[in-house]
Design goal:
5 strands, DUF3986, globular, DUF3986 family protein, five-stranded antiparallel sheet, alpha+beta, about 20% helix
Amino acid sequence: MDNLYDDKYHLHLGYYQDDCDYESIAFKRKSEDIWDIFFDFKAYGIKNNTPENELTLNSYGTRIFSIRNKEIDYDSGVYQFKQWLSINKIILIVG
């Protein structure tokens, strides 16, 4: 684990609707109230469109976005992950 993160604080964020099964993981930075969300593109066979120099952690994937807050809850984290999946055309949100 990168020294940037406190390994005591992490949260799994999943999208399990419409026959989909995608999961990301959020890690809390040690020095600031920011949670970085990582997605393992390779594990899902999805092309990684993030900038080449974006932070990648072995076994966890590439940082896809960050949430500025001391704490995050599962529902708000999943909502933002779902939005990211939709914006990146990994899922289709209808209605």
